[in-house]
User: Fold this.
Amino acid sequence: MEYMSSLVLIAVSAALINNFVLHYFVGICPFLGVSRRVDMAFGMGAAVTFVVSIAVGLSWMFTYFILQPGAPLSGWIWHGVTGQPAEAVDLSILNYIVYIFVIASSVQLVEMYVRKFFPSLYKSFGVFLPLITTNCAILFACLMVMQHIVGATGPEAWGLDKAMVLAVFAGVGFTVAIVIMAGIREDLDHCDVPKPLRGAGITLIVAGILALAFMGFTGMDRGLEQAIHSANNNDTPTAAVEPARQVRQTLPSPENAPTKIESTRG
Amino acid sequence: MCPTLAVTNGMAQAMTMSGAVLFVLLCANIITSLIRGMLKPHLRILVFTLTIATFVTIADKFIAAYLYSMSKELGPYIPLIIVNCVIICRCEVCASKQPVLTVAADAVGQSIGFGLALASIATIREMLGSGTWFGYPVMWEGFDKWVIMVLPPGAFLTLGLLLGGANWIGQAFAGRGKKQAA
Assistant:
């Protein structure tokens, strides 16, 4: 239960609360560039989700086994070659270079695989694949996972499972954001937008309002955590209703607001 | 594009970021220019990215060593310079074709432009959002802070309105030029 709740929290937080586009500002370029039509936006979202899962999986393995301080594989080689203790090895300076390599090659791999086995799928989102290499969302996901491996202990240290959940749901969050944006922009085509704001200007302002809406999800992770915990503690049928009410009560009250907002206010 | 929005909630962050971009762009451009004769066309982008990644690592470690609190605040956005379109684009368009000196001048100019853009967004966001500039209070007593400006939505709104403003000024000038010509 503890394990499941942590997975659920990571998923919800990656997809909604800390949405990659609207909270961390990563992946803005495709968000503005490919959000003209809903079907294209969905294709882009699917491609990003696909690549981010593969890239995060690979980079987790690289970081855990080779790059982190005292990593098992490189430590073993170091010990075998020099005879010095395996803990001395630290390759974390190579992190960024390795991630870029992993992302570039996994994009290439995905492109070749999709072209060979799913030609129709390749036709629909093949054009987006090369663009993804320079999509910051992928690198950002890898970096987030890195922060949870290097120097992290206890529940903060993530296994492959948590990293994959983060990656998949970050991709889902990206898809949700870009599809909503594309829907709004399709309607916006029929509106009379002031001339200087046409194009990027109005898109950014709409994105701002969308980010404002997504800020409504802040605090949801705490509510969920409480709900899961109280459901865990007393497994009676009424317990399912009670936490839901608790969630609703905890959301608007200021003292339950996350620390981030408080710190900016202070 | 991404750092433009993420690091502009204060002047200090924005300036650190543009300093890092200046360093990375300058070094990466010089190296690319030096090895431009050896580049194979299909491996070009990969070589650029690896060069950039090397210098970003240097910049990241440097900031972590000398400006620790700043590096905490900027967090993963420094490594994100690697995928910054500006740098790859300059490597591709300029550095792979020109001699070293031209390229260095281009890099400095580009990053000053980038810094100015960051500074204009950061000034608006920091003054309205926390009533300070470089951490010093500049707004009058009793000024009501617009918390939304330092939060994510403020970045989108500011950039959108700034773009609109720039377009508006550009169009006004263009219109005037046409009238004078006629």
Remarks:
- Chain A touches chain B at residues 22-29, 32, 93-97, 100-101, 104, 133-136, 139-140, 143-144, 147, 194-197, 200-205, 207-209, 211-212, 215, 261, 264-265 (CB under 8 Å).
- Chain A has 13 helices and no strands.
- Residues 236-266 of chain A have pLDDT under 50 and may be disordered.
